[in-house]
Amino acid sequence: MEIVILAVVIAVVALGAISGLVVSSRKKKQLPPAPPSSPSVTAPPAEPHVGEEAEPPSAEPRRTVEEVELPGAGAPVAEAEPEAPAAPAEPEAPAAPAVEVPEPTAGRLVRLRTRLSRSQNSLGKGLLTLLSREHLDEDTWEEIEDTLLTADVGVAPTQELVERLRERVKVLGTRTPEELRALLREELLTLIGTDADRSVHTEPGVGVNGEEKPGVVMVVGVNGTGKTTTTGKLARVLVADGKSVVLGAADTFRAAAADQLQTWGERVGARTVRGPEGGDPASIAFDAVKEGIAENADVVLIDTAGRLHTKTGLMDELGKVKRVVEKHGSVDEVLLVLDATTGQNGLVQARVFGEVVNITGIVLTKLDGTAKGGIVVAVQRELGVPVKLVGLGEGADDLAPFEPEAFVDALIGD
Ligand code: GDP
């Protein structure tokens, strides 16, 4: 009998000790400000929005349960649980980091028009000057042709344009500068195309399980073209348009890419899903879309690695990322990022990527640093896909939706 009583006393003391441990371990955890969240694939930035304090408390008790379960005692958990609300978390809520408000997207190209000054002088104004010559002899037409070729318009489009210009100038007879400008504007617009759908498709759809799925955009291209920067800038474009965005850092090839992307995301309050360095890009992309679905985001942007080691390697990697993401539902847009300053090289890249993955839109970066604005025409011809966005500088809001009219007006002046 005494032994039984002794055993009960020991049990009670032990119980008290364990629950005391649980409470103190919880208290210890709650004291430091904002504990880092789970070290798994998802490493979200400090979320500046409402409701974040709900997350740490809901994660903590779960960890406590696991700790308590280890010694094999289930009962104390029930006792420990009710004490959870006792720890007041409110006063510790960290001040939300300032989230930037990106500039509206409408009219960006107009704002950035002066950045095209190199293309402006050599392509637009160059052509106008040549066409204004009193005698349009063969040499002049050759110069016009050279101007177009030098600006990377491409051989076939150059010949088409020169032919059309020849015809129309003949019909026109005497030419006033205004007439010439109008004529050139019209012909350049025809060459670039005004009917294409240049919107970036980001509309939410229905996932494989019938749930609402965010619009999914994959950003592909050779490293160094400005892919990660463009993904970050695009997040800003979308946020500026009132959308919520989740970023997937699936460029695990370049060491700093994930940090870079996360920084872009934090600036506009977008969560970044990332994995270990050198991790599997497809699984990060998969998790990013999963996260997008879970937090009901409007759009998930996935930055990918663009190693042009071999075409099959690239095909395997990008193909796999796409296939794996499609387990959630459709990929709505595949944007190819090309550096406008690389000329023919860019066109070769376009060709290879076009064979590897179904490109739905082109982003031309660094148009601010080149006289070769004609690449817009050439690359569209090469891929049969429209240029949707253009990069005109390193500033956060220097990515503009591509508008043919504004572009041509910038080239030839109003
Ligand atoms: P990634 O390897 O393709 O992801 O390349 P990054 O995004 O890191 O960009 C490479 C460099 O290009 C960075 O220094 C960017 O700031 C720069 N860059 C990207 N877009 C533009 C642009 O439109 N204009 C200019 N001038 N620089 C750009």
Strand content: 5-15%
| pLDDT averaged over residues | 80
The structure class reads alpha/beta
DSSP E strands, number = 10
For the largest sheet, list the strands in their spatial order.
Answer: 5-4-6-3-7-8-9-10
Largest sheet: 8 strands, mixed
From the alpha-carbon coordinates, what is the Rg to the nearest angstrom? Answer: 29 Å
Q: What overall form do the CA principal axes indicate?
A: elongated
- Range of helix content: 40-55%
Distance between the termini: 104 Å
Question: Could you state the order of secondary-structure elements as H and E?
Answer: HHHHHHHHEEEHEHEHEHEHEHEEH
Instruction: Identify the bound ligands.
Output: guanosine-5'-diphosphate
User: Which runs of at least 5 residues are low in confidence (pLDDT < 50)?
Assistant: 4-9, 11-91
By DSSP (H or I, 4+ residues per run), the number of helices equals: 15
Provide an overview of this structure.
With 414 residues, this protein is α/β, with parallel strands linked by helices. It has 15 helices and 10 strands. The protein has helices at 2-30, 55-69, 75-80, 108-111, 117-131, 138-150, 155-172, 177-192, 227-240, 257-267, 281-294, 311-325, 344-356, 375-383, 404-412, and strands spanning 205-206, 212-213, 215-220, 245-250, 271-273, 299-304, 333-339, 361-365, 387-391, 399-401. The strands form 2 sheets. Strands 5-4-6-3-7-8-9-10 form an 8-stranded mixed beta sheet, sandwiched between helices. It has a two-stranded antiparallel sheet with strand order 1-2. β1 and β2 form a beta hairpin. It is elongated, with a radius of gyration of 29 Å. The N and C termini lie far apart (104 Å). The structure holds guanosine-5'-diphosphate. The site of guanosine-5'-diphosphate has 18 residues, from α9. Keywords: Cell membrane, Cytoplasm, GTP-binding, Hydrolase, Membrane, Nucleotide-binding, Receptor. Its EC number is 3.6.5.4. Involved in targeting and insertion of nascent membrane proteins into the cytoplasmic membrane. Acts as a receptor for the complex formed by the signal recognition particle (SRP) and the ribosome-nascent chain (RNC). One of its GO terms (biological process) is SRP-dependent cotranslational protein targeting to membrane. It comes from Streptosporangium nondiastaticum.
